[in-house]
Design a protein that fits this description.
2 domains; mainly alpha
């Protein structure tokens, strides 16, 4: 839980009792619970509004999908799948290696694809 072990949790609880006193701790715990519920409700409402604004194509959108690390992992997984498909197609053609690439001659201009720009 948040990278906090049992020992750290005991120290935090002990310090809380010393700082706030045992009579105020239940009220502080209730306030922390209310804050956690409000934050969860806020995040759920934000997700629902985002889904509504983006339309039905993003009905299964989760806020974790917007994490840059998750996006990079997804793209790497897709690239690895494409690489596996390429290797399978090379094996199906009976060749051991992909077709050789022709090198440009000195002074030769590389091909330009007008549709790609």
């Amino acid at each position: 839980m948040f990278g906090i072990g049992f020992g750290e949790l005991v120290v935090i609880a002990f310090l809380a009792v010393l700082v706030f006193g045992p009579d105020k701790l239940p009220e502080l715990a209730r306030q922390a619970g209310r804050l956690a519920r409000e934050l969860r409700k806020f995040a759920t409402n934000a997700r629902d509004e985002l889904r509504a604004e983006l339309g039905p194509a993003y009905a299964d959108l989760e806020l974790t999908d917007l994490d840059p690390r998750a996006i990079v992992r997804k793209h790497i997984a897709e690239a690895m799948a494409e690489l596996d498909d390429l290797e399978d197609s090379i094996r199906d053609t009976g060749r051991d290696e992909p077709a050789p690439v022709r090198m440009l001659e000195p002074g030769e201009r590389p091909p330009y694809d007008f549709d790609a720009t």
